[in-house]
Design brief:
Elements lengths: L1 H8 L5 E2 L1 H6 L9 H9 L6 H6 L4 E2 L8 H7 L5 E5 L2 H10 L11 H4 L10 H16 L7 H6 L1 H16 L9 E5 L5 H8 L13 H50 L1
Parallel strand pairs: 1-2, 3-4
Helix pairs in contact: 3-8, 6-10
Length: 258
């Protein structure tokens, strides 16, 4: 999230991010994007310009970060940023935030069936995240998002192996790559790499964990409100039906007496 805000501040917005896939905060339609990311992870051809190049100035986070090789081939002049942090910190962040976005746990297991935004995207999200995780870390490390979230050892190994591949130049030329170390680098290094003027404002430090926990709590709240609304509606409907039936019985009894 900090990098997203920094890229926007540096003039590379709008920035594609997982929150755009779910919530369309920039107002750019992304509903069909999950299927395209899934297709890309399965080796199918997709139009990268239509997906990213036409409307977006930059991108970060899942699922953009899964495809540096493909993105370099599509946009050979693009620059790439690898953000690095200690593996334990990364895993802690995962388990406190996006590992909770799984349709295998409540409330998502229920909410994914609601025909409202963003809930109707949750089932597609799970398919996409599993496919991209397998593409990024398999074979031999993590074949699904649940497996990546299940073990600190697996997650750290997956992260370390990925970073080694990126830093070796396997996916993009090293001239196009900047390794951004969280807590060490800021606007000065980022601006120099991207060839833009350094802002006078401090580099953004966003508590994504707290923000994501708030979103998850709101999802739980939404589930309870919807369930309560359904129960109340059913109760009212039953009451109305019983009232109508009782009136009809009363009317029939009066006619028989007459």
């Amino acid at each position: 999230e900090s990098l997203r805000l920094a890229l926007i501040e540096l003039g590379f917005g709008p920035t594609y991010h997982m929150r755009e896939v779910l919530f369309e905060e920039e107002g750019i339609p992304t509903y069909d994007d999950m299927q395209q990311w899934t297709d890309a992870a399965m080796g199918k051809e997709i139009d990268w310009y239509e997906l990213l190049g036409k409307d977006w100035g930059s991108g970060c986070d899942y699922p953009v970060s899964v495809f540096p090789k493909e993105l370099h081939q599509a946009f050979p002049d693009a620059k790439f940023i690898l953000t690095k942090r200690p593996g334990k910190d990364w895993y802690k962040s995962l388990t406190n935030t996006i590992c909770g976005f799984s349709t295998e746990i409540y409330p998502n297991k229920f909410l994914q069936y609601l025909p409202f935004e963003p809930f109707r995207r949750f089932s597609k999200q799970t398919i996409m995240v599993d496919a991209t995780t397998k593409y990024k870390f398999a074979p031999g490390i993590a074949d699904s998002w649940a497996e990546l979230c299940s073990s600190e050892e697996i997650a750290i190994r997956a992260l370390d192996e990925w970073n080694k591949k990126v830093e070796s130049g396997e996916f993009v030329p090293l001239d196009n790559l900047f390794v951004f170390e969280l807590g060490k680098h800021g606007y000065r290094e980022l601006s120099e790499f991207l060839g833009v003027e350094e802002p006078s404002t401090p580099y953004p430090r966003v508590n994504s964990t707290s923000e994501m926990k708030f979103v998850i709590r709101m999802m739980w709240f939404a589930m309870f409100v919807i369930i309560a609304g359904i129960v109340l509606s059913v109760g009212i409907l039953i009451f109305i039906i019983k009232t109508i039936m009782n009136r009809r019985r009363g009317s029939s009894s009066s006619k028989k007496t007459d």
